[in-house]
Amino acid sequence: MNASAAPGPDVDPTVTVLIVDDDELTRTGLRTLLSAKPDLDVVGEADDGAEVVAAVTRLRPDVVLMDVRMPRVDGIEATRRLRALPDPPKVVVITTFENDEYVWDALRAGASGFIRKRAPSQQIAHAIRLVAAGDSVLFPDAVRQMAAGRPVRRDTSVTTALTGRETETLRLMARGLSNQDIAARMVVSLETVKTHVGNVLAKLGVGNRTQAVVLAFETGVVDPEG
């Protein structure tokens, strides 16, 4: 996860959060940790993915902190349902292991990133702030490890659709760099990077930068062994 990004000026200083986990102790622990952060407001909880859409419709959270493994409706399907809403919240999936096979599918479904359940509270809070600001929460080594075990369907149409600078932006996104870090690496303004990212998402037909990164690995634009 990149630690240098900060919420932009158009992001409300208070980020509202919905916690979704089938384990009550986990929900209570997360609520306690996050409630100690003055800029985070836990507006509700749910114990299964089946309740998520109704809870989001009622509470309108900015970010959903979602367990990826739940008994009835798991975090993958719940994320997919949320992404189908007219104005969906950002989703961060929480998992026991960084290379959980479920995580990749949750990222494909539209989650903005993932974090370990036992991560320090500051790291979890920072992940929430990042996705609320429009960034992603990706651990490059873990993402590459997950991608390395999956088949690649080579598709040159992905790079053909993008300009050279947009392809470079996508590859840097896949390395876990924030918009600010990409701007520094490419020696361009932050606004230029945001334009590149927006163009990448539009041209690839994906909903967020994490889905773009997943597509980049799956189509061979980024080599997980590279």
Report on the architecture of this protein.
The chain has helices spanning 24-35, 52-59, 75-83, 101-109, 121-132, 140-148, 156-161, 164-174, 179-186, 190-204, 209-218, and strands at 15-20, 40-46, 63-67, 90-95, 113-116. The longest helix has 15 residues, at 190-204. With 226 residues, it is α/β, with parallel strands linked by helices. Helix 4 packs across helix 11. The protein has a 5-stranded parallel β-sheet with strand order 2-1-3-4-5, with helices on both faces.
Short account of what is shown:
This is DNA-binding response regulator. This protein is an alpha/beta fold.
Biggest beta-sheet profile:
5 strands, parallel
Strand runs, count: 5
Here the CATH topology of the largest domain equals Rossmann fold
End-to-end Cα distance: 19 Å
Instruction: Provide the residue-averaged pLDDT.
Output: 86
From the structure provided, what is the oligomeric state, counting identical versus distinct chains? single chain
* Radius of gyration over C-alpha positions, nearest whole angstrom: 17 Å
Total DSSP helices:
11
N-to-C series of helices and strands:
EHEHEHEHEHHHHHHH
**How many separate domains?**
2
What are the segments in which pLDDT stays under 50 over at least 5 consecutive residues? 1-9
CATH class of the largest domain: Alpha Beta
CATH superfamily of the largest domain: Response regulator
Question: Which CATH architecture of the largest domain would you pick?
Answer: 3-Layer(aba) Sandwich
